[in-house]
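ERR on first pass: missing label on line 2. Operator R.T. fixed the label and resubmitted. Corrected input:
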Amino acid sequence: MVAPTATLSPSPTVQLTELPLLGRSVESLTEWVQAKGQPAYRGKQLHQWIYQKGIRSIDEVTVFSKKWRTEVKDFPVGRSHLHFRSESPDGTIKYLLKLTDGHIIEAVGIPSDKRLTVCVSSQIGCPMGCDFCATGKGGYIRNLETYEIIDQVLTVQEDFQRRVSNIVFMGMGEPLLNTKNVVAAVRSLNQDIGIGQRMITVSTVGIPGHIRRLAEENLQITLAVSLHASNQTLRTQLIPSAEKYPLSELIDECRDYVKATGRRVSFEYVVLADLNDQPEHAAELASELRGFQSHVNLIPYNPITEVDYKRPSRQRIEDFTQQLKDKGIAVSVRYSRGLEKDAACGQLRASQIAETPPKSEH
Ligand code: SAH
Ligand code: SF4
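pass 2 clean. output:
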């Protein structure tokens, strides 16, 4: 396991001569079947079988001739294998998925009456090393490929036998260190699976210049920025990479994002008892965000074993919420689900995965 570092160098990716079929558009699949001597309409059929029927091998496409299926059956579709599945009493289900190269990632399905939300990973581990985050403590391996992101959504959809309505990039990894594949996945989830871009949230701790670059993609997604502190000193203490990225610059970049996209930004704030939950922090945060069309999402800290931060009492959180409201800030509290199974925010860790015995494999 690589030690956590805040390096921003390009990530290694999976070595494949040709990318799998998952993640390709209907046009690209049509070109692919034509290049293999098949009529164009086979492309549309293949698209349906990949995204609607969830095939794992082309050999399963029974509308194709047995002869052609035999010829191409070894071409990868790009699906992972279920390594482990665990359900929390609140209905949240955590999945450990084994990728083609043997690495394991997490995805979480979070059902409610009206929604099925998938919390997806964008990297194997995370190089940012935030002090309160289990993923950050577990090291970093590589960026996920586009198909590996889409596969997580299909896996949850198939398991729940229900359409996924919302996606949050809040699993393992920093999405804006993998913007190209994350953006390609967002487009494919939208066009190939039919999930509205407005139902997709990308959460970032902030990488200098990357939020502006994301704005150029003209997506309709919601951007969530992990702030966690009301001043630079405190933020640097929690997030090592913040040292090279002053809070004021991060907020300026967010303002530019709002200007360029017309979309609101939401700010996430992990509430740590006696550290960033005092009235002066609420006042400071409100002044940083003055005049900004934004929304603050408070996340009561979910304990991890490596550090001894504490989760504030419910009363403290209510007081902090009220203090922000009094200063005119739109605020809500997100009580994480899946806490019992370590599937909540910041509890997804690579090390634990290695220790987890496989329960169901197929
Ligand atoms: N890397 C991205 C997205 C993944 S983390 C980011 O940091 O935004 C998703 C959210 O979980 C972030 O807001 C993150 O700060 C939060 N989080 C991490 N560890 C946590 C913990 N122990 N308790 C509560 N929230 C946590
Ligand atoms: Fe990475 Fe986000 Fe965890 Fe920080 S909070 S270590 S950026 S996953």
